[in-house]
Write a structure and sequence with these properties.
The complex is a heterotrimer. Chain A is of the alpha/beta class. Chain A contains 17 helices and 21 strands. The chains are: A alpha/beta, B mainly beta, C alpha/beta. Chains A and C meet through helix 3, helix 4, strand 8, helix 5 and helix 12 of A and helix 1, strand 7, strand 8, helix 4 and helix 6 of C.
């Protein structure tokens, strides 16, 4: 009865797999069709260019063998030597920091949590540079949200605030929001679309209403909207570069919607105010719920950053920035956050899985990495890999190994293995298990 | 008694100094103090493994603790103390004076985030600058500072006095965004400039900005202009624009903004 | 495991097998209770002067899945007040009302509980529920699959296609590895998809042409067509509203009218929250007497308490509109998470205060239900964890049931005016050890149809709790504090024949089993139905049919129960 996972006979040299889940962005589109020949992916259908590109280029720019040594001093090593070296470095550390976890499975993330707990280190995930602010707001206020199907089936008003799905989450428009069809909505014409952004993005071109907000003034605008939705008066004529009459128009659209959905991205989370911007958005949605039905959904970037938050939370109670140094999970933004630990130069080892922090973190944070051992598990050759004292290649989750992931709206999905990884390359779960076993032996 | 702690080597990893308070050290002899254990990263170390400890018998009941050096990686100096004094001759680290109930803390250098977290009483004086969340409750809690006084000679970061209920915070320098966020009472005085969004979602309390603020949230309404306003210990000369808010939270708090420092706010006068 | 274990000389309570305080030995081999073993080859536990019972069975607790995790996210301040450092044998964790996964398993085990049912899981997010359950050590687990607002179920029922509804329900159970049919505010959570609710059993659910009554009756019929081991498990409409006891009674009665008496048809869960009389919050009264009278006069209904404890806790339920109402009155944190096509979720922290009028009524109603219902086999002890309070409060609730004096002590400090509108002060009844063994072990196991749980007969799973309490010497009515203390920390907890807790400390961290129901519907019938349903399924859902079910290999230690349906 359980629906088979592969359409055609596995042993054939050429076959097609349907309903594959794309391991690129938080959309986790699960209708991808992948064709395989002689063990390599040759064709991808239904995916957007970002997703297709990931499937089709997994052979490029890969770390193929474990390496020991930084930059020019790097040399190839056997897996067992690499693991021994890693374990030796971990044993000597007083405060290791484990970071990354967005582009891998929950199974791997749980093993990372195991490792951080045994060694009394700190562990953090990449949401701190993306939707961490959303999570922080969710802790102080609570998120008012829904799965994407609620939007598809019911939403007659869609607001994109500080995000550009046409470019960053291309299939979101057709699959989940603007032109999606559901039980109560037959498509684009049953909906109104509003884009609020600091410039007229490509997504703005498909909107019914575009509102340009002065950069850094989203908090003010959201506050003003909250006043208007509550039928309170504004003294001023303009907020954040927007005439109040325009804001009144938007407030009316929101209140008159039957089901409104607010999608937001780094335009809100990473601009002036950060998590308070999201708090203001939540406050607005709360007020709207007194008058109509309204939800907000974060446009999560990576395909399993949501899963990292979920796994961290069920295991430790906190979604990010955990410190195990005193024997139990402790959490305080600014203290246990990876960026702050690095800024203060407090960790004595940096262990990265499925992320490239050298490219994403502030420079001051990255400077400390010259002073401490850096270990990385990654399929690709990244700047972090080049800097690492030990780097071990791993398989691509969702293409070369199964894994549990969570979509941007927290719907859990099971990604499947499509092809084998290159010879000698193991899943990160295997590498982490090997390290754990050895560490357990010594601790 | 006065007891001095000097790190034997600079700290490389976080050090939790919350057990080293006048309350805990009261009645101990130097041997007991030296054998106290603290977390150094994930390891437990005796105090005398990481500090040179010197006792001077000044007499007097009160315990005076002195930390000498760079404590930027320390956590919880003065945690929960209710009496005595702590002086840090250097930087103080995170959560200095958390849950403090009484006594005094003086930090000659800077402190990091969470100074005076959920403070209830006592006084803290930081001669350098502070990070964000001064006096704020730990993340997820809404029970903010309810007593005591914090003075910062330098600058401070964001969300100082967030969820504050009572007590006072004075910053001689500049502050970042959101001083007095979700405030319920108490007084915040910023002698320098504020990056903006002062007193956001305030329900009650007073925030006084003597420097420039740039803009006022649309959820505040101008009430009057006052020539001066009561600060923490003294009257502060204005004149001040007095705003009431945060109206989106039906707030009855007051935001005082210096008129001379904020000429771009002159248009509010038309609304009076 | 081939371990042989002998529990010698305990004072045994095994009501399922008629044992009420007999001194006897219990023999265990290969994780199962056996007639006898060779003592010389066994490990022996001297249980002289100790109370021995089957391991506790929690019929309804929110421990895992999306809304539990939202609850954890929402309560960092609650985690800071209660944490457990790692030890050589156990993992660390946090949480007073919404504990993290490891801590959840250990705390149940320390209390002598060995089987816990996750109260409500939305099928679309079931993989999340199982991932968390897999991470919870020691206890055996199962989940109840929410169906009461499911579009396909509602459509089939309203179209009169009851057999197809039954096939779909059976498939849902298999796809989710669920144990039973859970109904939460039938029709109301679908209305919440538009921000609304339903307030009456006969109110039409917007756009669906079906009433809550029809949903409940339809699923009740499906439940018996599928021969499921448990009845429908119902969180009734109007939960948490004044004067809702009548809705509870009408819901219970509607299935009796439809299907007759003589067998169990419906389980009303956390009945306390649905047991109020009085038309407004200020005139709230206990409705427990009405409910108990009804339950005593019929034989088709079972309940669990949903007892409130005066503490700071976290409410979480699939009843989205209820949580919005709570937010409106408490004005604190509020999280909401609708699930497309299926259900919703809301999470709001709460503090039950003994000084509060409403809080006192709530506290009284749960106890009244347990004390006024005559048949202990049809009432189960729960707090609807964490809605009424954390499950770690069970020993306190037990002390209230066993001791009128314990209740009086609490009543001295509650809202005295509220007490006048409850029957509690006049109730003298005190639960015996047998009664407790029934409402915390035997009854839930029996109601759930778990043949190898909740008793100590030969063939039962060797899940046993031993408490340092001599029931022959301790009068629980007087010495309730001793009882409470002993039940908090088991002298021994045995799980599947392995000693996992000694003197209230976890000594072995082992994984539990995952129990689910495998309804044997002919493959071709299911495939035919799915072929028909697939286009609409993929029109409504945002996942493909193929990616919806929980893969078999995701379940840790699966322990399916094969069921033969009547279709």
């Amino acid at each position: 009865m359980i629906i088979p996972s592969i359409v055609v006979e596995e042993k054939a040299a050429e076959y097609t797999i349907e309903d594959v889940i794309c391991p690129f962005c938080g959309c986790c589109c699960d209708d991808i069709i992948v064709s395989v020949k002689d063990g390599r992916i040759i064709d991808v259908r239904n995916a957007c260019t970002l997703g297709a590109s990931k499937f089709l280029h997994i052979d490029e720019g890969r770390l193929l063998k474990p390496k020991i040594g930084r930059f020019e001093s790097a040399r190839e090593a056997s897996l067992s030597e690499a693991i021994e070296t890693v374990v030796g470095l971990l044993k000597d550390s007083y405060y290791p920091l484990f970071y990354g976890w967005a582009c891998t499975s929950c199974e791997a993330i749980l093993l990372g949590l195991d490792l951080a707990e045994i060694l009394g280190g700190a562990i953090d995930n990449t949401s701190i540079v993306c939707h961490g602010p959303t999570i922080l707001a969710g802790q102080d206020l609570g998120l008012i949200t829904a799965t994407l199907g609620q939007v598809k089936n019911r939403a007659d008003l869609i607001v994109f605030w500080g995000c550009n799905p046409l470019e960053a989450h291309p299939r979101h428009i057709a699959r989940y929001s603007v032109s999606s069809k559901g039980r109560f909505i037959s498509g684009r014409r049953d909906r109104k679309v509003v884009v609020v952004d600091v410039r007229r993005t490509n997504t703005a071109r498909i909107a019914d209403l575009f509102i340009e907000v002065k950069p850094g003034y989203d908090y003010e605008v959201l506050s003003a909207l909250k006043m208007l939705v509550r039928d309170l008066d504004l003294e001023v004529d303009e907020v954040g570069g927007i005439p109040v009459s325009k804001l009144e128009e938007l407030a009316d659209m929101m209140v008159e919607a039957r089901f409104g959905a607010l999608f937001f991205g780094t335009g809100l989370t990473m601009s002036r105010g950060r998590d308070k911007n999201i708090e203001a958005a939540i406050e607005l949605v709360r007020c709207l719920n007194f008058k109509t039905k309204f939800v907000l959904i974060p446009m999560r970037g990576h395909f399993n950053v949501t899963g990292a938050n979920e796994a961290f939370t069920w295991r430790t109670g906190y979604p990010v920035s955990i410190d195990f140094s005193q024997g139990y999970p402790r959490y305080l933004p600014g203290e246990t956050t990876a960026v702050d630990i690095l800024r203060r130069g407090e960790c004595d080892l940096f262990f990265v899985v499925a992320s490239d922090p050298i490219s994403h973190m502030p420079r001051r944070a990255v400077e400390h990495l010259s002073n401490i051992p850096v270990i990385t598990l990654d399929p690709k050759l990244t700047p972090t890999v080049y800097l690492s004292d030990v780097a071990i290649p791993v398989a691509y989750t969702g293409i070369e190994v199964d894994g549990s992931v969570y979509r941007m709206d927290t719907v859990p999905l099971r990604m499947r293995k499509i092809v084998d990884p290159p010879p000698g390359i193991l899943p990160d779960t295997e590498i982490l298990r090997m390290i754990l076993e050895k560490v357990r032996g010594c601790v | 008694m006065r007891i001095t702690f000097k790190p034997l080597t600079p700290f490389k990893v976080p050090v939790d100094l919350s057990p080293i308070t006048p309350d805990n050290l009261e009645g101990m002899d130097i041997g007991e103090v030296k054998s106290l254990q603290v977390w150094v990263g994930s390891k437990r170390k005796r105090i005398d493994e990481i500090f040179l400890v010197e006792l001077s018998e000044d007499g007097g009941e009160e315990v005076a603790i002195v930390f000498m050096g760079d404590f930027g990686k320390a956590r919880g100096i003065g945690s929960r103390m209710s009496k005595g004094s702590i002086t840090v001759k250097g930087s103080g680290g995170l959560r200095v004076g958390e849950y403090m109930r009484g006594g005094t803390i003086v930090v000659e250098g800077d402190v990091d985030h969470w100074l005076g977290m959920a403070m209830r009483g006592g006084s803290i004086h930081v001669k350098g600058s502070a990070g964000s969340y001064v006096g704020a409750p730990p993340k997820g809690s809404s029970k903010g500072m309810r007593g005591g006084s914090i003075i910062i000679d330098g600058d401070a970061g964001e969300c100082i006095g967030a969820y504050m209920r009572d007590g006072s915070i004075e910053v001689k320098g500049n502050v970042g965004l959101f001083p007095g966020l979700r405030m319920l009472g108490g007084t915040i005085v910023v002698y320098g400039n504020c990056m903006g969004r002062a007193a956001a979602r305030m329900k009650d309390g007073r925030v006084i900005i003597l420097g420039s603020i740039g803009s006022i949230l649309p959820t505040f309404q101008i009430e009057e202009i006052r020539p001066s306003v009561r600060g923490v210990r003294e009257r502060l000369e204005g004149p001040f624009y007095v705003f009431q808010g945060d109206l989106s939270e039906d707030g009855k708090g007051r935001l005082f903004v210096s008129k001379p420092s904020n000429p771009e706010l002159a248009f509010f006068e038309k609304l009076l | 495991m081939k371990d042989a274990l002998l529990i010698r000389n305990g004072v045994v309570y095994d009501p399922m097998n008629g044992v009420e305080g007999e001194v006897m030995d219990i023999a265990i081999k290969d994780g199962v209770i056996v007639e006898a073993i060779d003592e010389r080859k066994a490990k022996v536990i001297d249980a002289s002067g100790m109370l021995v019972m089957p391991g506790g069975v929690d019929i309804h607790s929110h421990i895992a899945g999306s809304k539990s995790n939202i609850g954890r996210l929402l309560r960092p301040e609650d985690h800071r007040r209660s944490y457990e450092p790692k030890t050589a044998l156990t993992r660390s964790g946090v949480g007073h009302s919404v504990p993290s996964t490891k801590t959840t398993g250990y705390r149940y085990a320390r209390m002598g509980y060995t089987t816990v049912f996750e109260a409500a899981s939305p099928p679309l997010k079931q993989k999340h529920t199982w991932e968390e359950l897999n991470d919870i050590p020691i206890i055996d687990k199962a989940t109840l699959t929410v169906m009461g607002n499911n579009w396909f179920i509602m459509d089939f029922i309203s179209q009169g296609r009851i057999e197809d509804a039954a096939i779909y329900a059976a498939w849902l159970l298999k796809a989710t590895k669920g144990y039973g049919i859970k109904i939460v505010n039938p029709g109301g959570v679908e209305a919440w998809g538009w921000g609304g609710n339903v307030y009456d059993l006969d109110e039409l659910v917007p756009y669906f042409g079906i009433t809550p009554r029809e949903i409940v009756e339809g699923l009740c019929k499906i439940n018996s067509m599928l021969n499921l081991p448990h009845t429908i498990h119902v969180h009734v409409n109007r939960l948490g509203m004044p004067n809702n006891c009548w809705t509870t009674l009408r819901t219970a009665h509607t299935v009796r009218k439809a299907f007759g008496g003589g067998k169990l048809l419906i389980h009303i869960t956390h009945c306390q929250f649905s047991g109020y009389a009085g038309s407004t919050w200020t005139t709230l009264r206990s409705g427990a007497e009405y409910i108990a009278k009804y339950v005593n006069s019929v034989d088709h209904i079972s309940l669990d308490m949903g007892q409130v404890v005066f503490t700071d806790t976290t409410t979480m339920t699939g009843d989205g509109p209820l949580e919005f109402r709570l937010f409106q009155s408490l004005a604190g944190k509020w999280a909401n998470a609708d699930v497309e096509v299926e259900t919703g979720a809301g999470i709001v922290p709460i503090r039950y205060s003994r000084r509060s009028y409403v809080g006192t009524i709530q506290w009284a109603v749960g106890l009244e239900l347990a004390l006024l219902v005559n048949d202990p086999w049809r009432i189960v002890l729960t707090t609807d964890h964490p809605n009424g309070g954390p499950f770690t409060a069970y020993p306190r609730v037990i002390s209230w049931l066993m001791s009128s004096k314990a209740r009086s002590k609490v009543m001295e400090r509650v809202n005295r005016r509220a007490l006048k509108y409850t029957a509690l002060p006049s109730i003298d009844r005190e639960y015996t050890f047998t009664d407790i063994a029934i409402v915390t072990r035997a009854a839930p196991a029996k109601l759930l149809g778990l043949k190898r749980k909740g008793h100590l007969g030969v063939g039962a799973d060797a899940d046993i709790a031993i408490y340092d309490l001599d029931p022959r010497k301790v009068d629980p009515s007087v010495d309730y504090r001793r009882v409470r203390r002993a039940l908090r920390r088991a002298a021994y907890t045995i799980k599947g024949g392995r000693i996992v807790v000694v003197k209230g400390e976890v000594v072995e961290d082992i994984p539990g089993r995952s129990i689910w129901v495998d309804v044997d519907i002919p493959e071709d019938k299911v495939e035919e139905l799915l072929r028909e349903v697939k286009p609409r399924f993929e029109e409504f859902y945002t996942v493909k049919l193929r990616n919806y079910p929980v893969p078999e290999d995701m379940i840790l230690n699966p322990s399916p129960i094969k069921i033969n349906p009547s279709i």
